[in-house]
User: Fold this.
Amino acid sequence: MKVKKRRRYSDVSISWNSWTGNRALDLVASTLFGNRKLSTEQYRRTLQLSKLWLNSPSPLDLVSTRYFESMASGAVVLAQESDGVSAVFPKDLIRTYPNPSEFPIAFLSALEDRDALKNTSEAAHEWVLEHGTWSNRVETLLGELEQIVSD
Assistant:
């Protein structure tokens, strides 16, 4: 969906495509705003082209696979601070902001320092490949289960 931007964001390419999974809401969004679910290839390509990816908090403070997908693709995650995010990720791998009113500051700050953004992107990519793949997570789970059974 094309986003009407304020002047201070005029030089930033922003893409917004909300997809809820609720057929009625998604039909309305598609009709009114042209939103449509991206194909797997379109989604992969969008992630790869993104420098910064906003992950909004879930109602239950769950950390979705989108965080890992974003990091693995090289996009820096921008997210609101939460217990879930801080429990899963090292602080220096995700850009955070304390509350929604602080989002514009965090957004512009992240884009201002291209070197820091690139360093965060590379570190997050390496971390997620080492700690965030399904095989890593299954291995960790099996190790913890083995520990429980042997105690």
